Amino acid sequence: MAGHDHTSREGIILCLDDNNGHKGYGEIAPLPGLQPETLEQALVQFRYLAPKLVLAPLKAEYALLDGNLTRWLEPYKLFPSVRVGIEMATLNL
Fold first, then answer.
1. Contacts with 81 (C-beta within 8 Å, 6 or more apart), sequence order
2. CA distances from 9 to 33, 50, 74 (A)
3. What is the pTM of this model?
4. Per-residue pLDDT tens for 29-51?
5. How far apart are CA 32 and CA 52, in angstroms?
């Protein structure tokens, strides 16, 4: 990627769960040379956002991929890796 060979990367696994015991997983793992943020920057942003996700109403229409999920996350101005991780976990859930 981006003209470099990557043999490893670091990140965090994100798990969202609902009241029925369902779980959805995503990863926040910036790729050097592809995404502008570092892992440390992504973690700071995620730690700020995490309390806002607790008890956030996840709507079934997010799975339609018609822009509702994007509009929900847009006000937070997330780094790409944080956005992808939350989207992945939300869609998995």
1. 11, 28, 29, 30, 31, 35, 37, 42
2. 12, 22, 26
3. 0.84
4. 998 777 889 999 999 999 999 99
5. 28
